[in-house]
Amino acid sequence: MIRAPDGQGSCLILMYHYVADLTGGTYKGQRGLSPEEFESQVIALKKHFDPITWEQFRSQRARGRVADRPAVMFSFDDGLACQAGVAAPILERHGVRGVFLVPGAVLLGGRLLDAHRVHLLLNGLALGGESLLGAVKDQLAAGDLVNDWWSRLDPVKAAKAYAHETCQSRQLLKYLLNFVLPSQLRGRILDRLLADHGVNEQEWAARWYGPRDAWKKLQDKGHTVGGHGFAHEPLAELSPEAQERDLTASHDALKDLLGPGERPMSYPFGSYDANTTVLARRAGFEAAMTTVEGLNDMSTDMYQLRRVDGRKEDVEKVLAAAGGAQR
Fold it and tell me: pTM for this structure?
């Protein structure tokens, strides 16, 4: 439940992924907002919240400052080209700066993250959840692995992890690939599926993520660029040692491109545990954002910052709550 902001140091952090023309082009079929829908949200939110930068947020927290009005920050996960090329200019047009959280592997280029390979197959190529789930099961069966992994596929956990998906086959597919299968096995399966459908992954990756210097240009314009893991793995599913390697590699990739500095991050898939928060700090990140819904106040743990999804229906609830609080 999204409560009404009280104005006493509360901060709404919104979470976005795809902001683009979703009817054609690179992101055809993906789930997100059109540029017009996103700009409408920015305009509406500014009527009830004061947009702040990451630097302002961390400064307020450090000084214990209480704002007169609730604040809003716009965060973007996954390092997509549409975020730098579409969302950022919209924010700038309204005097706002965002927080862009980029996986380290995206900065290296050359291939799609596995999560985005799934998005491309499922949505961009419109294969459908049932069809793609069947294809994955066939590949597991061919290697005598289907029973080993199928038995670990928990429909209840899948539904919880992907509550926004109304189709069970899509829930099961995403949970199986992103949370259950080991990364090497998942990678081999996706390699074959992409090859079967004639996908040139290097070309798609160049379009999906854009040039790496786009993030340096955003930073130069006053936006904050932070981390989102290195390989976009669900960190809580990894050993502490593997988590530390991933987080350190993520921080190093950002430092190599953008220079030294303290940066926030967000947890891929919202997956983290007690180890992750400690290891994120150790790797050099000054804060971390979750997918736990809610507002933040001065008492919120900086490594468990809450966010609200930027989906149209969720932002409408936020605006309704904010409007009611100010009447």
Answer: 0.94
